[in-house]
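Our preliminary data section would be incomplete without showing what the modeling component actually yields. Below, a chain of 119 amino acids is followed by its predicted structure, encoded as tokens that our downstream tools consume directly.
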Amino acid sequence: MKRINLFEIVGKRVLVTRESARSLETIVLTALVEGQGEVELDFSGVDGLTPSFFDETLAILEESAVEGDESQFHILMTNPPTELSSKFAAVSRGHNLALDELENGTWVITKSIQREGET
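Predicted structure:
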């Protein structure tokens, strides 16, 4: 599993815009390939996260699964700056992704793409 520290890359304590999320696209895509669909997004040093940033991050993950012909991915969001709320769960559902929160506060995002002919 590849680890990405978002604060070290973006350099902002509050992750707000879709553009900030898109700036991570190449790094996330590379990590997904190298981690064989498993990536840890570490939010250490980040104090805030907006639904817009989260939505765009999920779009990047979703696009990578389609483009890379990956059937699934498993993303850990460690040290999130907030508890999992209904607004973030709703954003995940909009991408047909499963989003769960572990006891330690880590968010787990999973996707399994069903291929034609599979049940």
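The two ends are 28 Å apart (CA to CA). Confidence is low (pLDDT under 50) at residues 115-119. Preliminary results of this kind motivate Aim 1 of the renewal.
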